[in-house]
Amino acid sequence: MPFQTTLTEALGIAIPVVQGGMQWVGYAELASAVSNAGGLGIITALTQPSPADLRKEIQRCKMMTSKPFAVNITLLPAIVPPDYDAYAQVVIDEGVRIVETAGNSPGPIIKKLKDANIIILHKCTTIRHALSAQKLRVDFLSIDGFECAGHIGEHDITNFVLLRRAAQSLTTPFIASGGFGDGEGLAGALALGACGINMGTRFMCTAEAPIHENVKQAIVAATEGDTELLLRRWRNTSRLFKNKVAIEAKKVEKESVTGKFEEIAPYVSGKRGRNVFITGDIDEGVFSFFSPLLSNSAVLGSYSHNGCSYRVNG
Ligand code: NAD
């Protein structure tokens, strides 16, 4: 097995690539395609309007792949707070073996899932949070650098620093998350001590991602300067595609006198972001993004590890 790592062994996958949980993207079509290709596909729980819908989505995914796949449960502020416990119960009832958790105060949900013998990959943006998650006996940490799309945390530590600190400080194996979009990145992550990578935005550009073609083209055309950071004022910083709405929202964030989240909520609403993916109107709402700097090549990368050369196909 050319890609044998602690991650591939524990999860029963062929390639140490995890498709990150992505709101309004992580449906069964994408998750099953990634799992069928040898990585770990992930259904995003909160993309489903209710726990009953998540159950149907998991069942759909089981029809599309016989390989392992996971469910992402993200615990962050939401305009309509979800019933996390009910989502977790569906995951358990459907026999999903792997869950990616992320966000604040994950203790009770992680305990519930661990009690059901589920393998947990928990996302952290600092070593302090990773050490706390270790105490919760998570199986893998997903170390998420400042480069990542979506919720970047409040400490802005880039992966070159964070991954080496993780290798020095943690006893739990970890994967690298944030800024990865090709085989060279995977090779770099393995060299820095990770046992795999978490890749999100890159998968948005695949044929299997169930989002509008305009969004895929916008991502391919974008550069590393095309991201905007929003919601720092509310300690929920997000890296988003720098479109008209994100620029307007940034102005509101800077200029708001009241500092009330309600002022910016209409700009960052997930419902509007979802519409971008459905209609293809890039300026209809905000969406998470980092620039994966894609080439036209179908090959994600070729590289050497442990004396062998590999090619990773995209
Ligand atoms: P939403 O419409 O509920 O909220 C839009 C954005 O505002 C989100 O980034 C949310 O975190 C933030 N937000 C909401 N209330 C807030 C508050 N009081 N203070 C500060 N920030 C606040 O979001 P949605 O698109 O319906 O998503 C639902 C949940 O899933 C959110 O918590 C969101 O952050 C999370 N999410 C998950 C993933 C994933 O990969 N699983 C990715 C992105 C977002």
TrEMBL record:
<keyword id="KW-0288">FMN</keyword>
<dbReference type="InterPro" id="IPR004136">
    <property type="entry name" value="NMO"/>
</dbReference>
<dbReference type="InterPro" id="IPR013785">
    <property type="entry name" value="Aldolase_TIM"/>
</dbReference>
<keyword id="KW-0560">Oxidoreductase</keyword>
<dbReference type="GO" id="GO:0018580">
    <property type="term" value="F:nitronate monooxygenase activity"/>
</dbReference>
<protein>
    <submittedName>
        <fullName>(Perigord truffle) hypothetical protein</fullName>
    </submittedName>
</protein>
<keyword id="KW-0285">Flavoprotein</keyword>
<dbReference type="Pfam" id="PF03060">
    <property type="entry name" value="NMO"/>
</dbReference>
